[in-house]
Design a protein that fits this description.
Blueprint lengths: L2 E6 L10 H13 L5 H8 L1 H6 L5 E7 L5 E9 L16 E9 L8 H15 L4 E7 L5 H7 L3 E5 L6 E7 L12 E5 L1
Amino acid sequence: MSYFKIKKLQKEHISPYNVKKFLFKMIQDEFGFGFIPEYHQDIKKMEDYYLDPERNNFFLAIDHDTEKIIGTIGIRAYDRDYPIFKDLYNPQTTASLWRVFVDKPWRRNGVASALVHMAEDFCRKKGYDKIYLHTQKTVHGSLDFWISNNYQIVNDTGNHLKTVHMEKNLRNITSISDNHGLLIFQG
């Protein structure tokens, strides 16, 4: 039986946990490319994107035995400029999920679900009405996972990356946190 814990990322965790290295490894494994400046500034400047803004956050799933990262999720106030969503999303009412990754050996053990529930709880407490995300159909199981968590497709781009834009209404979500920023799960 395996245990993992969810921690809110602090500045002092970034280097010891090798957060950036984990994220770039996951991007390489899932998408087959490395650092691209226009797509990955949030990883290079995690404090600016996730830790300093009051309504943003980043959670880590940590293997209880090895203390290594096994999953991540980032939350930011909606900050995209997609023309199709101009009047639909804004940073006051909409959060967006980023960098949702789970290391392959830990998949199907509840890690992603635990991270998403923590993120949704955080977003609800910060007063967001909706969560926006985009995913790619090319990532095995991703679209099914989001649909099973009650995210709705709002735009299927049909582009070369097979990007799908999704959202979830937060008005009926109940809090799960323990107010200590750390939860332990068994998978």
